[in-house]
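[Meeting: bench + compute handoff]

Bench side (C.D.) handed over the final construct sequence. Compute side (W.E.) agreed to return the predicted structure before the next meeting so the bench team could plan truncations. Sequence as handed over:
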Amino acid sequence: MKKTTKIFLIFIGSIALLLFLLNIAAPDQVSPFYVLLIFGLFFVVIDSFLVLLMILLNSIRNQVLGQNNLLSKKLYIYSSLISIGVVVILAIQSLKPISVYELALVAIAVSIASFYVYKS
């Protein structure tokens, strides 16, 4: 099975499980593990979507330029960093209304982590 197919199946399965879990219980009636599972599934959905988008854009670029460039491992790490930033923003939003201050803190944290990955 190709790597893209596996990622797509993970993406579809995560969306299905997330929709199922969001429909079976009210947020105030669940345990902390349930909430952690929801945030984890959000991370998997966003990360797999970004990886699929990255693969699609890379294949389009390769067709246009006539090259066969493989994706770097760092690009997968960047997609994970963006995904965790989005999940952190969702977590903050679930606790209180988000402001520019919180958005700036998350953006700075993701930027610092991205710079660290870039330099390594």
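W.E. noted at the follow-up: Residues 32-65 form the longest helix (34 residues). C.D. will use this when planning the next construct.
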